Automatic annotation (TrEMBL):
Pfam families: Glyco_hydro_18. Residues 1-143 form the GH18 domain. This is Glyco_hydro_18. GO terms for biological process: carbohydrate metabolic process. PROSITE patterns: GH18_2. It comes from the Bacteria. Transmembrane segments: none annotated.
Amino acid sequence: EVFQVTQYLDYVNVMSYDLHGSWNSYVGGNSPLFDNGEDPELTAAGVYTAYSNIGYLNGDWAMHYFQGAMQAGRINLGVGFYSRGFDDVVGGTYGDGGTAALPSNETCPEGTGINTACGHGATGINNIWHDLDDNGDEIGAGV
């Protein structure tokens, strides 16, 4: 469906950030431009073996995904100019490619969701910032 809709679009914005973060234990760049062939998450999932050492958690792969579907000048690459931190990193080169402990729900920062497990991605994190009301309680989205 992605390629079918491109005939109706003037351009496509490709998100290539938040590719790694504290929602799992694999340490990697937030918005890597290229794959170095050593991404621990892709290694654990068998991606390098299945796809001839081609990794997909990077901007280069995201741009090639649309190759042939649209002219290159109609594809915009979104790159995150911020970083993410990891605690208790083990292994890797200066931490990159290592593993880290998942964040503790007791230290969940404000604004990450009402009654959600902090920092565990698809299994719980709510990626919408929730403002606080006058009593300090989080206000749900759309209120």
